[in-house]
Amino acid sequence: MHDWGVYLVTQESLSAGRTTREVVKAAIAGGVDVVQLREKGRSARERYHLGRQLRALTREAGVTFVVNDRVDLARAVDADGVHLGDEDLPLPVAREALGADALVGRSVSFVDDAIAAENAGADYLGVGAVYETGSKDDIDDDEYAVGPERVGDIAAAIDIPVVGIGGITADNAAPVVGAGADGVAVITAITRAEDPEAATRDIAAAVEEGRR
Length: 212
Description:
alpha/beta
């Protein structure tokens, strides 16, 4: 069983001058549950070398580690799985490449897509953008701010874990989990925080509050 409570998506360009490795170490100290290697704008080779470092850190800490988009990179760094969007390989293809034990996640914004992803074999879903977000400039207007209600609708329609993503902070995470999400995924709420370790703790506390 994986805990999905606090799910960090890495992006060094949004990390206030710190390295992703530093941010991940701090987040692990703060109790992060999942780390996703994202790093848009960096080469596959750079992501590979960083992925090897993060795999070592997460393995030692018992933290789940997934790679955004790239099935080949997920295999190369021995990640626990991959997270797929609309532009990536179809879910069954990723599953075949990574094997039955790998985690395969999928980004969705609508109930129909969530049901289709579950039927295609997804292990968990990232649902968003829950709130307006500054870290993605490629979201269509109709996918802006689906809100905790949509997260709840999706969670009610499927049997696999749901992670809310998009504009989530310690101040607004609890309603997302209260609506039915198993956890929350964040980028800047941790990467840009003055103290990423403390920020991770604060978000974890908000997730617990939502679960209560």
